[in-house]
Write a structure and sequence with these properties.
Elements: E1 3-9, H1 17-24, E2 30-36, H2 41-50, E3 55-59, H3 65-73, E4 81-85, H4 87-90, H5 93-96, E5 104-106, H6 111-122, E6 133-137, E7 140-143, E8 172-175, E9 178-179, E10 197-198, H7 201-213, E11 218-221, H8 232-241, E12 248-253, H9 260-269, E13 275-282, H10 286-291, H11 298-311, E14 315-322, H12 329-340, E15 346-351, H13 359-362, E16 370-371, E17 379-381, H14 387-405, H15 411-418, H16 423-436, H17 446-454, H18 459-471, H19 487-501, H20 505-511, E18 512-517, E19 520-527, E20 530-537
Parallel strand pairs: 1-2, 1-3, 3-4, 4-5, 8-11, 11-12, 12-13, 13-14, 14-15
Antiparallel strand pairs: 5-6, 6-7, 9-10, 16-17, 18-19, 19-20
Helix pairs in contact: 2-3, 7-8, 9-11, 14-16, 15-18
């Protein structure tokens, strides 16, 4: 029996754990075909047909479901059993079984269910009685209950295939130390899982070392709440003790329950940049949080975030969701401003997605939600947020990405935005400037972003922002702005820097860029693949 598992990832750097877990935990030989959402579905279909498969399995998520639908329509004539699995299909199997090509849905965790299904298929035995299976049964659809795997120690690791070794250094590796979530947020699929379960800590440690030994640069834990793991401190200490100086570890953390002792330990013992914490705040509106069953002590959460920020050791990525119930535009602006003022390295602004199976989707009419019928089912409006409001927030999100999250700008712009009473208003006004001048937000050069920003700034702030630009590069850049420094002023300033910093004057002339504004001069000096900057008085 020829079995093919198909994965369509959002990007090449992503690694699909699901298909590898199915392969690792099966007694049957399995081929994996892995693509990205940018690949041609017609080529995928041809590749699948070339394998002459008896069984085809698709790993389905919101980011690839539309491509998979296209592929399925082109496989309806194939004499093979087609099986879908993954979070996108687990909670609405009736819809996906309406596709003629689909024979079965594997619901929930698939490692055991998929193996049992294959055993039945090999023996040509019926499988309608299997837990976690949904099938068509004549004119009706039979949906069997999801059964979670109680003991995760019985699962074999997905990280030890020889065929993956050549790719590990170029991809993000995903590791699990637990499954399930202790919280029940109504917009999240993790709220549908029964309980939290843990992998043996020794297994997780073995996987970490294997991935690091094979050149993985980023290891991201899939745990919905990493710090709910009883082995949190053990794993963090293990990572610190085996730090190779190169690999970065990312975790989703629930901030208000994060033990201050853990923060203190990491701030003291971890190297800067070793850890990246993603903390979901979503909203600071208490009424909104209650309506989506989100228990959050926002005051304590902010205190924990500030404790993390003080040492500058852990990179912070904070999350917000626009479009939650009772979060109108004014409330969302307050949420945005309060969270941005925490000063995190990244602020991810997302929009509520009405995921199949979630409570919030079932309650859509209650809050007058209008949302896209196609994945990712993003909202367009609700009872307190109009389509115009959503469009404005989307424009702010675009500016947030360009001028904050992508890291194109240095500390001076960040400090300027933090100094604003409303950072939201800063990004909104920048978005209006883009719209007024019909500036595109794609296919831009870095200098485009700086020039467009400067058009909204005072001369003094432009002087500061240009310093960010110059310090962004390790080698002398081509300036997007003309030099306004005359020869005599340049000579006087560079001679002073040469004397005080003991840099040969001819090197400064060749490898530096000079800015002057009022009585202040700024010199960016490029040597040996780095930029050093000096500030002095202008003559």
């Amino acid at each position: 029996m020829t079995i093919v598992l198909v994965s369509i990832d959002a990007k090449y750097i992503h690694t699909n754990n699901a298909v590898r877990l199915l392969k690792a935990n099966s007694s049957f030989p399995i081929d994996i075909l892995e693509y990205t959402i940018k690949d041609d579905p017609t080529q995928m279909v041809q590749d699948i047909r070339d394998k002459l498969p008896d069984v085809i399995g698709f790993s389905v998520y919101i980011w690839n479901v539309e491509q998979i639908k296209v592929v399925l329509t082109q496989l309806s004539d194939l004499d093979a059993t087609i099986i879908l699995g993954g979070p996108e299909v687990s909670y609405d199997p009736e819809y996906f079984l309406s596709f003629e090509a689909v024979d079965a849905i594997v619901r929930g965790e698939g490692e055991i269910t998929f193996q049992r299904l294959l055993e039945r298929l090999v023996k040509k035995e019926p499988y309608a009685d299997l837990d976690g299976i949904a099938i068509r049964d004549g004119s009706r659809i039979l949906v069997n209950p999801i059964v979670e795997i109680p003991d995760l120690s019985m699962l074999r690791s997905p990280h030890h295939f020889d065929s993956d070794l050549q790719h590990l250094a170029h991809r993000i590796a995903y590791v699990e130390s637990s499954r399930g979530c202790p919280f029940r947020c109504s917009y999240c699929l993790s709220s549908l899982e029964e309980r939290v379960r843990f992998f043996p800590v020794e297994t997780v440690q073995t996987d970490i070392l294997h991935l690091m030994d094979n050149g993985v640069r980023t290891i991201k834990f899939l745990d919905r709440t990493f710090n709910a793991n009883r082995n949190t401190m053990t794993l963090l200490d293990f990572i610190i003790r085996h730090d190779n100086g190169d690999t970065v570890f990312q975790f989703e953390i629930t901030g208000d329950i994060l033990d201050p002792a853990i923060i203190q330990y990491l701030n003291t013992h971890a190297r800067p940049g070793l850890f990246r914490f993603e903390i979901g705040i979503q909203s600071t509106n208490e009424t909104t949080n209650a309506l989506v069953d989100r228990n959050q002590d926002t005051k304590r959460l902010f205190e924990r975030i500030k404790d993390i920020q003080r040492a500058g050791v852990i990179d912070l990525h904070l999350d917000l969701i626009a479009g939650l119930p009772m979060e109108d535009k004014a409330s969302f602006i307050r949420t945005f401003d309060e969270v941005f003022h925490l000063g995190a390295k990244e602020l991810q602004l997302g929009f509520l997605k009405m995921l199949r199976g979630t409570k919030i989707r079932r309650e859509a009419d209650k809050y007058a939600y209008a949302y896209d019928e196609q994945a990712p089912y993003e909202i367009r409006s609700n009872h307190v947020l109009s389509e115009t409001d959503v469009a404005e927030i989307k424009a702010v999100e675009t500016m947030l990405e360009l001028y904050h999250n992508k890291g194109h700008f240095g500390p001076r712009l960040h400090a300027h935005i933090l100094a604003q009473e409303s950072p939201y208003a800063f990004f909104r006004n920048l978005a209006k400037h883009y719209d007024k001048h019909n500036y595109g937000t794609h296919r831009y050069q870095l200098e485009d972003l700086y020039q467009r920003l400067e058009e909204t700034l005072s001369d003094d702030l432009t002087f500061r922002i240009r310093q960010d630009y110059l310090e962004h590069f390790p080698i002398k850049p081509k300036r997007y702005f003309p030099s306004t420094v005359d020869r005599q002023t340049r000579q006087t300033i560079l001679q002073r820097i040469s004397t005080t910093e003991h840099i040969p004057l001819h090197q400064l002339y060749k490898h530096s860029v000079l800015l002057v504004h009022g009585d202040e001069a700024f010199c960016a000096y490029y040597q040996h693949g780095s930029c050093r900057s000096y500030t002095t008085k202008a003559p």
